[in-house]
Design goal:
The protein is 34% helix and 24% strand. By secondary structure, the protein is α/β, with parallel strands linked by helices. The protein is globular, with a radius of gyration of 19 Å.
Protein backbone atom coordinates (compact mmCIF):
# COMPACT_ATOMS: atom_id res chain seq x y z
CA UNK A 1 0.00 0.00 0.00
CA UNK A 2 1.15 3.61 -0.56
CA UNK A 3 2.76 5.47 2.32
CA UNK A 4 0.37 7.51 4.47
CA UNK A 5 0.04 11.17 3.59
CA UNK A 6 1.94 13.73 5.63
CA UNK A 7 0.20 15.25 8.66
CA UNK A 8 -1.87 18.34 8.05
CA UNK A 9 -0.24 21.53 9.29
CA UNK A 10 -3.32 22.35 11.28
CA UNK A 11 -5.96 19.77 12.09
CA UNK A 12 -9.53 20.69 11.29
CA UNK A 13 -12.32 19.35 13.51
CA UNK A 14 -13.37 16.07 11.88
CA UNK A 15 -16.67 16.30 10.03
CA UNK A 16 -19.40 14.03 11.30
CA UNK A 17 -21.25 11.56 9.12
CA UNK A 18 -24.87 12.66 8.71
CA UNK A 19 -26.08 9.10 8.21
CA UNK A 20 -24.48 7.49 11.26
CA UNK A 21 -23.36 4.50 9.17
CA UNK A 22 -20.05 2.70 9.66
CA UNK A 23 -18.73 3.92 6.29
CA UNK A 24 -20.18 6.49 3.89
CA UNK A 25 -18.76 7.52 0.50
CA UNK A 26 -20.36 10.69 -0.87
CA UNK A 27 -19.69 11.60 -4.51
CA UNK A 28 -16.04 10.54 -4.33
CA UNK A 29 -13.68 11.27 -7.23
CA UNK A 30 -10.09 10.06 -7.60
CA UNK A 31 -7.71 10.10 -10.55
CA UNK A 32 -4.05 9.22 -11.04
CA UNK A 33 -2.64 11.52 -13.71
CA UNK A 34 -5.04 11.12 -16.64
CA UNK A 35 -6.63 7.89 -15.41
CA UNK A 36 -9.94 8.33 -13.59
CA UNK A 37 -10.27 5.55 -11.01
CA UNK A 38 -13.42 6.63 -9.15
CA UNK A 39 -15.90 8.90 -10.89
CA UNK A 40 -18.33 10.22 -8.29
CA UNK A 41 -19.16 7.05 -6.36
CA UNK A 42 -21.54 7.01 -3.41
CA UNK A 43 -22.53 4.17 -1.09
CA UNK A 44 -22.93 3.43 2.60
CA UNK A 45 -22.12 0.51 4.88
CA UNK A 46 -24.60 0.39 7.78
CA UNK A 47 -23.30 -0.69 11.18
CA UNK A 48 -23.18 -4.46 11.55
CA UNK A 49 -23.60 -5.22 7.85
CA UNK A 50 -21.26 -6.63 5.20
CA UNK A 51 -20.78 -5.25 1.69
CA UNK A 52 -18.90 -7.16 -1.03
CA UNK A 53 -17.26 -5.04 -3.73
CA UNK A 54 -16.84 -6.38 -7.27
CA UNK A 55 -15.55 -5.18 -10.61
CA UNK A 56 -12.97 -6.01 -13.24
CA UNK A 57 -9.26 -5.45 -12.56
CA UNK A 58 -8.49 -1.75 -12.23
CA UNK A 59 -12.06 -0.75 -11.39
CA UNK A 60 -11.05 0.75 -8.03
CA UNK A 61 -12.02 -2.00 -5.58
CA UNK A 62 -8.85 -2.00 -3.45
CA UNK A 63 -8.61 1.78 -3.85
CA UNK A 64 -11.85 2.07 -1.89
CA UNK A 65 -10.22 0.28 1.06
CA UNK A 66 -7.18 2.57 0.92
CA UNK A 67 -9.46 5.61 0.90
CA UNK A 68 -11.43 4.27 3.87
CA UNK A 69 -8.15 3.90 5.80
CA UNK A 70 -7.04 7.40 4.88
CA UNK A 71 -4.01 6.06 2.97
CA UNK A 72 -5.25 7.93 -0.09
CA UNK A 73 -7.11 11.24 -0.26
CA UNK A 74 -9.94 11.75 -2.77
CA UNK A 75 -9.79 14.56 -5.29
CA UNK A 76 -13.36 15.46 -4.33
CA UNK A 77 -16.16 14.16 -2.14
CA UNK A 78 -16.45 12.99 1.45
CA UNK A 79 -15.56 9.69 3.10
CA UNK A 80 -16.98 9.17 6.56
CA UNK A 81 -15.61 6.31 8.66
CA UNK A 82 -17.15 5.79 12.08
CA UNK A 83 -18.56 9.29 11.86
CA UNK A 84 -15.38 11.11 10.85
CA UNK A 85 -14.44 12.52 7.45
CA UNK A 86 -11.08 10.82 6.85
CA UNK A 87 -10.21 13.17 3.98
CA UNK A 88 -9.99 16.06 6.47
CA UNK A 89 -8.24 14.31 9.35
CA UNK A 90 -4.70 14.88 10.60
CA UNK A 91 -2.38 11.87 10.44
CA UNK A 92 -2.35 11.39 14.22
CA UNK A 93 -6.14 11.28 14.26
CA UNK A 94 -6.03 8.73 11.45
CA UNK A 95 -3.75 6.52 13.54
CA UNK A 96 -6.31 6.60 16.33
CA UNK A 97 -9.12 5.78 13.88
CA UNK A 98 -7.20 2.89 12.34
CA UNK A 99 -6.96 1.25 15.76
CA UNK A 100 -10.72 0.74 15.46
CA UNK A 101 -10.37 -1.00 12.08
CA UNK A 102 -9.12 -4.51 11.30
CA UNK A 103 -7.44 -5.12 7.94
CA UNK A 104 -6.95 -8.46 6.17
CA UNK A 105 -4.41 -7.71 3.47
CA UNK A 106 -4.12 -9.41 0.12
CA UNK A 107 -1.54 -12.24 0.41
CA UNK A 108 -1.83 -11.97 4.24
CA UNK A 109 1.18 -9.60 4.71
CA UNK A 110 2.50 -11.44 7.76
CA UNK A 111 5.95 -10.63 9.15
CA UNK A 112 8.20 -13.51 8.10
CA UNK A 113 10.62 -13.02 11.00
CA UNK A 114 7.89 -13.18 13.65
CA UNK A 115 6.10 -16.23 14.98
CA UNK A 116 2.36 -16.64 14.62
CA UNK A 117 1.98 -15.50 18.23
CA UNK A 118 3.99 -12.34 17.55
CA UNK A 119 2.18 -11.62 14.27
CA UNK A 120 -1.26 -11.90 15.85
CA UNK A 121 -0.19 -9.92 18.94
CA UNK A 122 1.55 -7.19 16.96
CA UNK A 123 -1.11 -4.48 17.31
CA UNK A 124 -1.64 -5.09 21.02
CA UNK A 125 2.12 -5.04 21.63
CA UNK A 126 2.40 -1.75 19.69
CA UNK A 127 -0.26 -0.12 21.83
CA UNK A 128 1.78 -0.92 24.92
CA UNK A 129 -1.12 -0.71 27.38
CA UNK A 130 -2.09 -4.39 27.44
CA UNK A 131 -0.46 -6.79 29.90
CA UNK A 132 1.52 -9.78 28.65
CA UNK A 133 -1.02 -12.10 30.25
CA UNK A 134 -3.93 -10.39 28.48
CA UNK A 135 -2.08 -10.43 25.15
CA UNK A 136 -1.42 -14.15 25.48
CA UNK A 137 -5.06 -14.85 26.34
CA UNK A 138 -6.36 -12.83 23.41
CA UNK A 139 -3.85 -14.32 20.95
CA UNK A 140 -4.96 -17.81 21.90
CA UNK A 141 -8.61 -16.76 21.72
CA UNK A 142 -8.16 -15.32 18.22
CA UNK A 143 -6.21 -18.34 17.00
CA UNK A 144 -8.80 -20.67 18.50
CA UNK A 145 -11.48 -18.77 16.59
CA UNK A 146 -9.70 -19.51 13.30
CA UNK A 147 -8.87 -23.04 14.52
CA UNK A 148 -5.09 -22.55 14.43
CA UNK A 149 -4.07 -22.43 18.08
CA UNK A 150 -1.60 -25.27 17.42
CA UNK A 151 0.44 -22.98 15.11
CA UNK A 152 1.18 -20.39 17.80
CA UNK A 153 4.96 -20.99 17.86
CA UNK A 154 5.36 -21.55 14.11
CA UNK A 155 6.65 -19.08 11.53
CA UNK A 156 4.69 -18.00 8.40
CA UNK A 157 7.03 -19.99 6.14
CA UNK A 158 5.87 -23.16 7.90
CA UNK A 159 2.21 -22.49 7.08
CA UNK A 160 0.18 -23.15 3.96
CA UNK A 161 -1.33 -20.24 2.04
CA UNK A 162 -4.75 -20.85 3.56
CA UNK A 163 -3.32 -21.02 7.08
CA UNK A 164 -1.54 -17.71 6.56
CA UNK A 165 -4.85 -16.11 5.54
CA UNK A 166 -6.47 -17.49 8.69
CA UNK A 167 -3.65 -16.07 10.83
CA UNK A 168 -4.19 -12.73 9.08
CA UNK A 169 -7.86 -12.84 10.09
CA UNK A 170 -6.87 -13.65 13.68
CA UNK A 171 -4.54 -10.63 13.62
CA UNK A 172 -7.37 -8.44 12.31
CA UNK A 173 -9.91 -9.47 14.95
CA UNK A 174 -7.67 -9.54 18.05
CA UNK A 175 -8.23 -5.83 18.77
CA UNK A 176 -12.01 -6.30 18.50
CA UNK A 177 -12.39 -3.76 15.68
CA UNK A 178 -15.59 -1.96 14.80
CA UNK A 179 -14.90 -2.43 11.07
CA UNK A 180 -13.02 -5.12 9.14
CA UNK A 181 -11.69 -4.55 5.62
CA UNK A 182 -10.93 -7.65 3.56
CA UNK A 183 -8.75 -7.24 0.46
CA UNK A 184 -9.25 -10.32 -1.76
CA UNK A 185 -9.03 -12.80 1.15
CA UNK A 186 -9.38 -15.83 -1.16
CA UNK A 187 -7.21 -14.53 -4.01
CA UNK A 188 -4.76 -17.14 -5.29
CA UNK A 189 -6.16 -19.96 -3.16
CA UNK A 190 -7.50 -23.27 -4.42
CA UNK A 191 -11.30 -23.82 -4.26
CA UNK A 192 -11.21 -25.99 -1.13
CA UNK A 193 -9.04 -23.53 0.80
CA UNK A 194 -11.15 -20.62 -0.47
CA UNK A 195 -14.24 -22.29 0.96
CA UNK A 196 -12.50 -22.59 4.34
CA UNK A 197 -11.71 -18.86 4.34
CA UNK A 198 -15.25 -17.91 3.26
CA UNK A 199 -16.71 -20.08 6.04
CA UNK A 200 -14.44 -18.33 8.53
CA UNK A 201 -15.59 -14.90 7.30
CA UNK A 202 -19.21 -16.03 7.68
CA UNK A 203 -18.41 -17.17 11.23
CA UNK A 204 -16.80 -13.82 12.06
CA UNK A 205 -19.76 -11.95 10.55
CA UNK A 206 -22.43 -13.91 12.41
CA UNK A 207 -20.67 -14.19 15.78
CA UNK A 208 -19.30 -10.64 16.11
CA UNK A 209 -21.53 -8.78 13.61
CA UNK A 210 -18.62 -6.52 12.70
CA UNK A 211 -19.25 -4.00 9.91
CA UNK A 212 -17.22 -5.27 6.94
CA UNK A 213 -16.15 -4.28 3.43
CA UNK A 214 -14.96 -7.21 1.36
CA UNK A 215 -13.15 -6.84 -1.96
CA UNK A 216 -13.23 -10.02 -4.01
CA UNK A 217 -12.61 -11.38 -7.49
CA UNK A 218 -14.81 -14.41 -6.77
CA UNK A 219 -18.51 -13.68 -7.08
CA UNK A 220 -19.27 -17.16 -5.77
CA UNK A 221 -17.69 -16.28 -2.41
CA UNK A 222 -20.24 -13.53 -1.81
CA UNK A 223 -23.16 -15.67 -3.02
CA UNK A 224 -22.05 -18.30 -0.49
CA UNK A 225 -21.96 -15.65 2.23
CA UNK A 226 -25.45 -14.50 1.21
CA UNK A 227 -26.95 -17.99 1.32
CA UNK A 228 -25.23 -19.50 4.38
CA UNK A 229 -25.02 -18.71 8.08
CA UNK A 230 -22.95 -19.89 11.03
CA UNK A 231 -24.58 -22.31 13.48
CA UNK A 232 -23.04 -21.97 16.94
CA UNK A 233 -24.42 -25.33 18.08
CA UNK A 234 -22.58 -27.30 15.40
CA UNK A 235 -19.73 -24.78 14.97
CA UNK A 236 -20.30 -25.00 11.21
CA UNK A 237 -21.85 -22.96 8.44
CA UNK A 238 -25.12 -24.17 7.01
CA UNK A 239 -27.27 -23.24 4.03
CA UNK A 240 -30.22 -20.95 4.65
CA UNK A 241 -33.73 -22.06 3.61
CA UNK A 242 -34.54 -21.01 0.02
CA UNK A 243 -35.63 -17.37 -0.23
CA UNK A 244 -34.50 -16.43 3.27
CA UNK A 245 -31.74 -13.97 4.18
CA UNK A 246 -28.91 -14.14 6.69
CA UNK A 247 -29.39 -12.40 10.04
CA UNK A 248 -26.51 -10.07 9.17
CA UNK A 249 -27.33 -8.35 5.87
CA UNK A 250 -24.90 -8.75 2.97
CA UNK A 251 -25.06 -6.49 -0.08
CA UNK A 252 -23.18 -6.33 -3.38
CA UNK A 253 -21.50 -3.26 -4.85
CA UNK A 254 -20.52 -3.56 -8.52
CA UNK A 255 -18.16 -1.03 -10.09
CA UNK A 256 -17.74 -0.26 -13.78
CA UNK A 257 -15.53 2.44 -15.27
CA UNK A 258 -15.26 4.25 -11.95
CA UNK A 259 -18.97 4.29 -11.19
CA UNK A 260 -21.32 2.23 -9.02
CA UNK A 261 -23.67 0.37 -11.35
CA UNK A 262 -25.30 -1.83 -8.70
CA UNK A 263 -25.79 -1.66 -4.94
CA UNK A 264 -28.21 -4.20 -3.48
CA UNK A 265 -28.65 -7.73 -2.17
CA UNK A 266 -28.17 -11.08 -3.91
CA UNK A 267 -31.86 -11.41 -4.83
CA UNK A 268 -31.82 -7.99 -6.53
CA UNK A 269 -28.54 -8.77 -8.27
CA UNK A 270 -29.89 -11.97 -9.78
CA UNK A 271 -33.01 -10.13 -11.00
CA UNK A 272 -31.06 -7.24 -12.58
CA UNK A 273 -31.92 -6.55 -16.21
CA UNK A 274 -28.69 -4.68 -16.87
CA UNK A 275 -26.87 -6.49 -19.71
CA UNK A 276 -23.42 -5.89 -18.22
CA UNK A 277 -24.46 -7.26 -14.80
CA UNK A 278 -26.21 -10.26 -16.36
CA UNK A 279 -23.02 -11.11 -18.25
CA UNK A 280 -20.86 -10.43 -15.19
CA UNK A 281 -22.73 -12.87 -12.94
CA UNK A 282 -23.30 -15.55 -15.59
Amino acid sequence: MPSPTLPLEKASPPAQSPAGDAIVFENVYLAFDEKVVLNGISFCLPHGETKAIFGVAGSGKSTILKLALGLLKPDAGHIYVLGQDVAQMAEQDLFDLRRRIGMVFQESALFDSLTVRENVAFRLMEEGNVSDEEIERRVREALSFVELEHTIDMFPAQLSGGMRRRVAIARAIIARPEIILYDSPTGGLDPVTSTTIVNLIIKQRDVYKTSSLLVSHRLQDAFTMATECFDRKTNRTQRLPPGSRAEVPLTFLVLREGKVIFDGDAHQLKRSRDDYIKEYIS
